[in-house]
Design a protein that fits this description.
This protein is α/β, with parallel strands linked by helices. It contains ten helices and 17 strands. The chain has two domains: 171 residues, Alpha-Beta Complex (Quinone Oxidoreductase, Chain A, domain 1); 127 residues, Rossmann fold (3-Layer(aba) Sandwich). Helices cover 25% and strands 28% of the residues. 44% of the residues are buried. Bound molecules: zinc ion (2 copies).
Length: 334
């Protein structure tokens, strides 16, 4: 089979290798669609948790083509999406029911061979039947699961006003989940005009350009909840000014490891703020598929590029340009 292998920082190779064989409890998936995300860029640049060499790709859907011994509930030709995080079930964090912090954490496409390949072996327990969802939509199960975990912590209630700063693909998932949770107003801020246009078409009641000075006129006193979806510490600083007294901030964007924010902790105290954050997901996959299936979260407008396997490096370049790129998907069968 063909696979993208990252040998080291910025060293990518399209290699021919032996197709893996599913062992006990595993299934072999023929990858149809794999989304490219910021984590892949971090691995590519040498900034993240992964070990080299690695086959990247953790947001994917495909077809079961072989079933390992002892697997129940799946057979050939089943259409599935896969939850990439694998926890051990027995460490302290797994026992606390917080498997996203598992001390023996492994992930398909990060520490184990991923889905930027024609085939990938996965634990059957990590595969989810997608019914008649398209592979393209089902490949959003993983990023949407992460969004759902964060939004569960933020706990948006009916009638609330929500500001999402950062109108990238993840921001637009967040906005739609906020809407589905009953938010009365969903406002987006970003500095890229084309992203704001898309946000306005898809979900936003109002959009604001962050390069101008702007205040939430319709929400005097600030938003009930603000989501930092840009991965930029200055955006977090701004969130503190824009959230109401007693409001909540969710830090969702992945900032550069060493970047710091300047915060007057007095402001947190005086405004009585809750600052929340979330890391990956905790059993949100079924929920994600359900929202995709019934159209409460729409992802078709988020995909701007579809590339074959040998387009991985092109994808890395495309993602550096927020002006023209939203979600890039790799189609290994093309
Ligand atoms: Zn991802
Ligand atoms: Zn564990």
């Amino acid at each position: 089979m063909r696979a993208v292998i990252i040998q080291g920082p910025r060293k990518v190779q399209l290699a021919e290798m032996t197709r893996p064989v599913p062992k006990e409890g595993q299934v072999l998936v023929r990858v149809r669609v794999c989304g490219v995300c910021g984590t892949d860029v971090h691995i590519y640049k040498g900034e993240y948790l992964g070990d080299y060499p690695v086959i990247p790709g953790h947001e994917f859907a495909g077809e079961v083509v072989e079933v390992g011994p002892g697997v129940k509930g799946f057979e050939r030709h089943d259409r599935v999406a896969v939850e990439p995080n694998i926890s051990c079930g027995s460490c302290r964090f797994c026992r606390l029911d917080e498997p996203n912090f598992c001390e023996n954490w492994r992930a398909i496409g990060v520490t184990k061979p991923g889905a930027m390949a024609e085939y990938v072996v996965v634990p059957a327990s990590a595969a989810f039947a997608i019914g008649d969802l398209s592979y393209e939509e089902a490949a959003f199960m993983e990023p949407l699961s992460c969004v759902l975990h964060g939004m569960e912590k933020l706990d948006v209630r009916s009638g609330e006003s929500v500001l999402v700063i950062g109108a990238g693909p993840v921001g637009l998932l967040i906005g739609q989940v906020a809407r589905a949770s009953g938010a009365a107003r969903v406002v987006f801020a970003d500095r890229v005009a084309s992203r704001l246009e898309r946000a306005a078409e898809l979900v936003a009641d109002r959009v604001a350009d962050t390069s101008e000075s702007w205040q939430p006129a319709e929400t005097p006193g600030g938003y009930d909840a603000v989501i930092e979806a840009a991965g930029a510490p200055p955006v977090f600083e701004r969130s503190i000014d824009l959230v109401r007294h007693g409001g909540r901030i969710l830090v969702f964007g992945v900032a550069p490891r060493d970047a710091a924010a300047r915060v007057r902790t007095f402001d947190l105290f005086r405004k009585g703020l809750s600052v929340l954050s979330s890391y990956t997901s905790v059993r949100n996959s079924e929920q994600a598929l359900e929202l995709l299936r019934n159209g409460r979260v729409r992802v078709d407008r988020l995909v701007t590029h579809r590339l074959p396997l040998d387009g991985f490096e092109e994808a890395m370049e495309l993602l550096a340009d927020p002006e023209g790129t939203m979600k890039v998907q790799i189609l290994p069968g093309e």
